[in-house]
Specification:
about 70 residues; 2 helices; about 0% strand; elongated
Length: about 70
């Protein structure tokens, strides 16, 4: 999905993006930015896992009611 949005990025493009991010946020803010990004991804994965478990649980309940 990521490649659909951005197309195929090569090494020069990724280096340019990293350089622009470094210029915008600076070396001191970059670790804080990455930490925030990591916690956001972690929260998203936790929410996704919770939804999956709820769907599986409700499907089990439906199967048990059918029997």
């Amino acid at each position: 999905m990521f490649t659909l949005l951005l197309g195929s990025l090569g090494a020069p493009e990724l280096i340019f993006i990293a350089f622009v991010v470094l210029l915008l946020f600076g070396g001191k803010k970059l670790p804080e930015l990455m930490r925030g990004l990591g916690s956001g991804i972690r929260e998203f994965n936790n929410a996704k896992a919770n939804i999956e478990s709820e769907v599986k649980e409700s499907m089990k309940e439906l199967d048990e009611k059918k029997k």
